[in-house]
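User: Some background: our group keeps a shared notebook of sequences we're curious about, and every so often someone picks one and asks for a predicted structure to add to the entry. Today it's my turn. The entry only has the sequence so far, pasted here. Could you supply the structure so I can complete it?
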Amino acid sequence: MIVGAGQVGYFLSEKLSVEGQEVVLVDRDGERLRTIERELNIITVEGSGASTRIIEDAGIDHTDLFIAVTDSDEVNLVSCILSKEYNVATRIARVRNEDFYSSGSALSREALGIDFLISPDLAMAEEIVKLSTRSGAFEVLEFAGGHVVFLGYVVHDYNPLCGKVLFDLRGLPGVIVSIVRGEDSIIPRGHDRIEAGDKLYLVTRGEDIPVVESLFNVASNPPQRVFVIGGGRIGYLVARRFEAMGIGVIVVEKNPDRCAFLAENLDTTMVLNSHGLEAHDMLEEGIDRADLVVSVTSKDSINILSSLLAKHHGAAKCITHITRPDFIPMLDDLGIDVALSPRLVAANMILRFVRGGSTVAVATLLANNAEVMEIRVPDREGVVDLPLKDLSVPAGAIIGAIVRGREVIIPRGDTTLREDDNLIVFFNRESMAAVHDFFRVD
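Assistant: Of course. Here's the predicted structure to add to the notebook entry:
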């Protein structure tokens, strides 16, 4: 049962229903529910998730997983507490108030009896900081405790990989699992050729990242000079984390009262009372020499334009907050390096928590709605003790790495799977159901 039919609730409903779960979506907005019901194979119930009558009508007695993701902390918490009375196994709430994350607080997760609390703003800040440490990549996902890394790189026209076919890259310490070219997502084969503008997704060992980056002619160095456009909650959290890393930060915020708060609560950060589109003010502070510009105001238009302005004046990399995730695929043509939706980042964190059974970890790629999953090898005929070349993996899926104990194996056709292996599997949206069925994902 999911309470809240916003972007997080819709995204989770779609993902879980595709996997064969029976999903009930509860929301006050009947028109919104009727639209979603036409698009997804789910049940909808109109009403408040904080109402005992509504959640009983929705089938709370038969619910294994309860997720409350409305825009109201109070509704999310009350509905989760109510669900506890019906012996729901797992309860998740989305909240913004930092008091709920304080260890020992009377309002903490443990005190409220909630299994997982997620803050979209906090999740967004953590994602931004993680991406900043891999300056050449637009996507960074870690598996097997960081021993396996999934990376996304744009192939620029000066890249030595341009024009090469994949057969030429047999010495690459990793597996290229997808090539995104325009609107097409290609599961690569040996004869495929790399072209300028391609987005390459690959899986590699953490220790081999320097070799991979040398091939892409990039180097990941932590930024030394960061501009944060927008001093709201996300901007404040990002600045605070960069401060802790010893990185120089300038926060640009137009609201004088908010500037006063930032100046009082941040230690080494410089606060600039200006608009994110005031080029003169920001150039005086050196935005043209910035290693990273993070645009996180409440307006998509300002975030996009301030990122483009920063890139125009010479900023090395921009990370842009986008409320509308359907805008994300269109931003590549504008030259924006990384676009992030806090709602979808939060939904990904929830999915990683709720996947059980043989699934160890999972992440959705926001740009093309594909997934990367770490999964235990099912002990059954047709999988164990077969070389990969003889494995009937569904079309649209590719195994990028095998984790065997402490060893990470970059697979080849003659690699044989063992019972205790974990696999890092990439698959596109169309093959999602087939992959879950093949690997018997619970």
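Suggested note for the entry: The radius of gyration is 23 Å. The mean pLDDT is 85.
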